[in-house]
Each structure stands twice: as structure tokens, then as C-alpha cells.
Amino acid sequence: MSHTTPTAGDDARDAATLNEPVSGAGAGGDGVDHIQRAEDVVARVLARQGTALASTVDHNREDDAGALEREARAGTRRTRSGSTELEDVSEVEYRQIRLERVVLVGLRTTGTQEEAEVSLRELAALAETAGSEVCDALIQRRAHPDPATYLGKGKAHDLADIVKDTGADTVIVDGELAPSQRRGLEDVVKVKVVDRTALILDIFAQHAKSREGKAQVELAQLEYLLPRLRGWGESMSRQAGGRVAGGEGIGSRGPGETKIELDRRRIRTRMAKLRQQIREMEPSRRTQRASRRKGGVPSVAIAGYTNAGKSTLLNRITGAEVLVEDALFATLDPTVRRSTTPDGRVYTLSDTVGFVRHLPTQLVEAFRSTLEEVAEADLILHVVDAAHPDPVGQVAAVHLVFDTIEGARDIPELIVLNKADLATPEQLALLRTTFPDSVAVSAYTGLGIEGLQLRIQDLLPQPRVTVDLVIPYSYGALIHEVHEDGEILSEEYVGEGTHIVARVDEALAARLKEAAVHG
């Protein structure tokens, strides 16, 4: 059963009914209405409508690339253990977030009830991706979060009753909790409480597979954990003296929180080591980018909201077989593949990590080296789920992340309206009006891909120097390089060699002129 607490108009009347106890024959129709309204709310929250998974809910994904990895991920889903980890909660913890049966909690401080429910639906999709079962949901209407329990004392006790009734072992809050708020809410509901940030970090930890990706996720987790260590458990004594020590005075001072301080020191040491490892991995990525730049190969970065179809688009254009999964944050590690424009120019296509509303700042910082693929690109393909109920909101969320990446907003951006086969004509017409330079495609069926490739061809930087030379046949490797990295305007085989007219970069033009002179 789900519970909401609006405050004005019809919402207030609904709230009064929702909070009334249902008992006795006299409750009659009101009790039925109360139950029906509550069930309607939880049905809306648990439905995929309004989430990044909504448009592909009925898709058959058996033939998608990455079947073996999807099977491996499915084999490591969490199983029910019946543990609430309350003993861990009272100690210093590095808690594994075993999300099994969860209750979702949202706080509506601004905006409409529908916006709050959309946010909670996305939280439900995140929880399902993490391998949990959503039992119930609750939305509280407040002017601002309660500093002690986030929800307020009364609603926190209502949440405790819901947790008890559903047998849930975890509460997930749709927001970021202060350490004191999480501790206060846990004291009331008596089960583990995690927030949206911890949930997203947990999903990233499940999906990271490369050495760099694992290091980035672990760094983000430790940055999140450090200020949230708990150290007032029975196994630790507190620094106290005089009147503070229960009136016992001098001589009662304990050894201090040696365990929690030791854990903090270990975390800081581990974080420093991870940062060093990530810095050591950066030169390799920079070298790869520099080699592509030296060869004059332009780069295109695919970015967008999670589950918008970025990996499917990469597979469709390049023939790659990267993992495709109908889940949030299925792809974390960037994948770079080579492709060619219709006129024969070579460019690279990079698939990057997906974004989401309220993406944790720890992840943005930890994945800085990965996000540089976007900042270093010549063109950004911003993939948007055209069949999503709120594609404009997704674009805004992605642009907020772009704002944190230096130089990203200065790069040409092409909006790609993906899943056009699932969107209605009205949806596409509205999006084309909102984004007039966009391209509508379906990476799943191949619809519109040729038009997209032509747009990429037009937007990629053109080589700057035009050469009209006869290159001796002995310089065949140089001619091949022109085909790979330049733009051929005309090519003719004559007695002295290959008569070529092409546009190339300055370095290659100089080598071609030298070869022509030597010939």
C-alpha cells in the first residue's frame, strides 16, 4: 500500500481520507476508496511509465548483443536473506547494500504531485536494476526536509508501520540524506535506510568490469562513505572526561574512538591510492586520443540519458557487439569503434556512461577521465528517448552534467531522437519543434540511420588543405593514408603514378608534396 500526504485543494481532501483508519462496517465506501486510491498510487509508481525503461517494456531483447554478459549479470542477482543488518548499522560499517524487499520514500517540497511520482517511478526502476523487489511507496508533502528524520516524526512512524506490514528490509529515500537524517530515520523504522546516491553507486559497482571502471566506482563509494561512518556502537568507547563522563570525573577518560579513526585513516589511504591508479591510467587514454588526433581522425561521442539506446546506436553504425541491456546504467566503460562517413572519411565513435537526474557528484568526479571522451570530441551525438514521457526533462538533465565538464557545451551537438519506431507521430512532431535540428532514428530497426550518417558527415570538421598531385606508385601507403584520413575528390591512374585531388590536413599535405617532388 502506498501513502501520500499532499496539502492543498483536492490533494488535501485525499490526504485526509488516506490517513483515516479503515475499521468497522461504518468505514464502508470511504475505506474502499482509501484502499483504492492507495493502490492506484503504488500501481503508478511501480509502473514503468515515466521512467527510462518505459518505452521498451514490451521489447523482446533475446537477440540483442551481449547475451553472455547479460546472463552473467542475471546470475549474480541478490537473493533474499532475511537480514536487516541492524547489528551492522550500530557499528562502523562498509555496508554491502543488499536490496531485497524495499519501500520507497519521496519528499515533495516543490513541483506537482505528478512530478514527485515520476521521480519515484525512476527510483523504483533503479531499485529493480539493483536487484530488489519494491513492496510499497510513500510520498510526503513538506515545505522542507526534517533535519532529524527527513520525513518528520509522525510520518517516520507511519513508514515504520509500512515496513513492518510489508516485511521490507530496506528503505530507499529519493534524495540525498545527511548522516544524521539517515541515522535518525533508521532509529525509527528499525531497518536499513539508504538514499538515491547510495543506490546509484551500488548499481555502478555491480556493472563495472574494467580495471579503470572498478577503481572509479570504488573511489566514488569511499567518498560517499567517509562522512557517513558510524562510531557510537557498543564496541567503542567515547572520548569523555569531567562532567561529560557521566559525572565520574577524572580518570574515566576512555581510549577514544580508535576503531572509527582507524577506519577513516584506512579509507583516506585507499582513496589516495585509487586516485593515483586513475591518474596512472589517464596517460594511456590520452595517448590513444593523441594518436587519433595526429592521424587527423575526427571523433564523435555518444552521450545521453541512461537507457536511451546509446549502445544500440553504436552497434548499428559500427557493427560492434557491445552489451545491450534493457536496464539503467548497463554501460559504464567507454567503448571506441571506428566508422566511415558515406563519402569515405574515417572517424571514431565513443559510447559513454549514461546520465540520470541528480547524478551523484561523486560519480561525476570519479568518472572525470571517462567523461573527457565527451570534452575531447569533435561532435556530440546526444541520444534522446523519443518515446519517453518526458524527453525534454532528460535533455535538461544531460545538459546539467555537460555543464560540469569543461568545454563540453562548446562542442557541436546533434540531438538524435532514438526509438522513433515506438514514439507516436504527435510525440515526434513536438520534439522536432522543440529541437528543430534533430534527427529521428530507430537504432533497433535501422530507421533513419542513413540520414544520421549524412548529418554526421556534414558536421564533422573538414580537412583544410586541398592537394592536386601525382604520387608515384611506390608511395602506395601514402595514398592509403589519404583514403583513411582525408577526403578524396578525384583519383586517376596515370603513367607516372596516381593523380589525386583531395582535402587533407597540413601534415599529410606536406608529406604528399614531398613524395610528388621526389617522384
Q: What's a concise summary of this model?
A:
The protein is 45% helix and 16% strand. The chain is an alpha/beta fold and 519 residues long. The longest helix is centred in the middle third of the chain and has 37 residues.
Description:
The chain has 18 helices and 14 strands. By secondary structure, the chain is an alpha/beta fold. The chain has a 6-stranded mixed sheet with strand order 7-8-6-9-10-11, sandwiched between helices. The chain is elongated and about 90 Å long. The protein starts with a strand and ends with a helix. About 11% of the residues have low confidence.
Distinct helical segment count: 18
C-alpha-based Rg, rounded: 28 Å
Number of strands: 14
Content of β-strand:
15-25%
SS class: alpha/beta
Helix content: 40-55%
The global form is elongated
Strand order of the largest sheet: 7-8-6-9-10-11
Average residue-wise pLDDT: 77
Give a quick account of the main beta sheet: strands, pairing sense, barrel closure. Answer: 6 strands, mixed
* Low-confidence parts: 4-28, 75-97, 232-238
Note the topology.
Layout: E1 3-5, H1 9-19, H2 24-46, H3 67-75, H4 86-89, E2 101-108, H5 113-129, E3 133-141, H6 153-166, E4 170-173, H7 179-189, E5 192-195, H8 196-207, H9 211-225, H10 258-294, E6 299-304, H11 310-318, E7 335-340, E8 346-351, H12 361-366, H13 368-375, E9 379-385, H14 391-402, E10 413-418, H15 425-434, E11 439-440, H16 449-459, E12 465-471, H17 476-485, E13 487-493, E14 498-504, H18 506-518
Parallel strand pairs: 1-3, 2-3, 2-4, 4-5, 6-8, 6-9, 9-10, 10-11
Antiparallel strand pairs: 7-8, 12-14, 13-14
Helix pairs in contact: 1-2, 2-5, 5-8, 8-9, 9-10
